[in-house]
Fold this sequence. Notes:
This protein is mainly alpha-helical. It is built from 16 helices and no strands. It folds into three domains: 198 residues, MFS general substrate transporter like domains (Growth Hormone, Chain: A); 53 residues; 229 residues, Growth Hormone, Chain: A (Up-down Bundle), CATH 1.20.1250.20. The two termini are 24 Å apart.
Amino acid sequence: MPDVRLASPQGKWILFTTVLGSSMAMLDSTVVNVALPRIGRDLDAELSALQWTVNAYMLTLAGLILLGGSLGDTYGRRKIFVVGVVWFAVASLLCGLAPNAEMLIAARALQGIGGALLTPGSLALIQASFHPDDRGRAVGLWSGFGGIGAAVGPFVGGWLVDGPGWRWVFLLNVPLALVCVPVALRHVPESADGRKHGRFDVLGAVLGALALALLTYALIEATEGTLLVAVAAIAGVAAAIAFVYVEKRRPDPMMPLDIFSSRQFTAVNLVTLCVYAAFGGFFFLAVIQLQVVSGYSALAAGTALLPTTALMLLFSARSGELGDRIGPRIPLTVGPLLCGAGMLLMLRVGPDAAYLPDVLPALLVLGLGMVTLVAPLTATVLASVDASRAGLASGVNNAAARAASLVAVAALPLVAGMGPEAYLRPEAFDAAFGRAMVVCAVVLVAGAALAFAFVRRPAPGCERPECRTHGNVVSPPLERPRARKRL
Length: 487
């Protein structure tokens, strides 16, 4: 049984290194967006290259995050966590040194592999290391500090882009890893799940990632209208069908399809797809809109988005408590509607937009909507399956959110009519951004309708999430299997 106490020096070191490691991946999911316009200009890249700069990372992260958690459980959570941190740092160095867009995109894909190894490992180390009496508080601190990191990320990213340059957005990860790895090796105890047998659903992971990659390529390059794009789309659909077939037939699948036999679980994941598709598209385009159209600096654009994360940090725990009392149906219906209203308010953000009257109201409404829905969404995911599958359910939900963001970043510019050089032409980008916000609002309304129609109050005695404080805006909090905790 784990016996490290939170108040001990070792406990503090464990918390420090897990927060630092997970913050690297969390920061990279938000900071890079702030740097996109400068990256595009410096590397003479089209909009599609900027989409791939975001999606190459999300693709490997979403496709491999479930496999990364299984590797840690089998071969040692500390070992896989350290490998993930080192991998992430080396890939970050390659990103910072990339001479062109193609090399940057390839390095970003490598970054996502590192993120898939360290992201589930950081929370798993806390669950496996701390005494049960301290585990809940340790998870809360890990989640809270991680949220603070997410909040300051866009600010730091903007400062780096305007100061030493966008390459330091990636290079900053190297010294962080140089601190994280020695602390982990010295102070974090190794742990593994003795029940694991070492067999992994590698084929399922490859097929899932391949399906996402091919469909993403087809969406991003759809304006070209070439035979290659059509072949990629057909192959992507075929890979998705093959993934379902493999997962249904394997004795130990990465994503057991019978978990979707729960109507509640299926409904909540459909809501997740709608919500995080809208979020992914919004955070990809909003920072570009603020810089290209409204004339904000990278620092000002990054700082402008802080209210959404700050509201989630301050009130997500209270929102979770409210969801416990009244059930998830109302929060999961009202939350997306508030987010949709916030995105429609972004239609006021055009040339020379002032922050207080034009930008801040939209972000406050959006942030309130996110606060309302994120914590109840996680609680409902955990409550919709047996307690023994809580970690799997959370992992599937997290992967679904990242996949939705991935597809949105690929599809939204196409649907909104953004050309290859739209981000270099303020008037064209402004018009397309308005259309994109309407699309995002419609998707959120669809999510609200799904929640109202199909989400019901969980049965008594359900799982309760331990990540009660949440600041990540690109995916729901990832929960690991743990001792049964009842509502």
